[in-house]
């Protein structure tokens, strides 16, 4: 665990079987997060192999501290891969860097391009299409 998140906040899992892809969690995550914030704001979820951070303040600290926390694992699967997918990865896959997996300074550079492209100024036709009422 990084120096940026207080060690006292990191706890054992509230629910060792926690799975954010579970249908009941997806249907209504709010009671789960309320319990996490109350009982263990930051915990390791062994079933998915990731740390769960439930408080907004902690999430902000993590997002702003790219020296301690990297985006490199963002696209790792949370569920075990099928044998076919595992075999495909062993054969070699070309990993294409994306904004979501980049750390500064690359993240800032690619995000700046994307932000410009999707702004009203950068894409006037896009803003016009959203301004029109939709008809079906």
Automatic annotation (TrEMBL):
Q: What is this protein called?
A: Cytochrome P450 hydroxylase
Q: Where is the composition biased (Polar residues)?
A: 122-136
Give the region (Disordered) as residue ranges: 78-136
Which InterPro entries does the UniProt entry name for this protein?
A: Cyt_P450_sf
Task: Cite the Gene3D superfamilies for this sequence.
Answer: Cytochrome P450
Secretion signal, residue range per the UniProt entry: none
Say which family it is in. Answer: Belongs to the cytochrome P450 family.
Give GO terms: molecular function aspect only. Answer: heme binding; iron ion binding; monooxygenase activity; oxidoreductase activity, acting on paired donors, with incorporation or reduction of molecular oxygen
């Amino acid at each position: 665990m990084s120096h940026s998140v207080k060690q006292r906040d990191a706890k054992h899992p509230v629910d060792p079987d926690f799975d954010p892809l579970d249908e009941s969690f997806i249907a209504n995550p709010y009671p789960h997060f309320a319990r996490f914030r109350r009982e263990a704001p930051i915990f390791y979820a062994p079933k998915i192999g990731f740390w769960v951070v439930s408080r907004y303040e902690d999430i902000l600290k993590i997002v702003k501290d790219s020296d301690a926390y990297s985006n490199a694992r963002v696209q790792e699967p949370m569920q075990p891969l099928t044998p076919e997918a595992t075999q495909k990865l062993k054969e070699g896959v070309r990993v294409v860097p994306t904004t979501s997996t980049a750390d500064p300074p690359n993240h800032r550079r690619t995000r700046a391009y994307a932000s410009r492209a999707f702004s009203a100024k950068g894409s006037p036709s896009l803003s016009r299409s959203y301004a029109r009422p939709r008809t079906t």
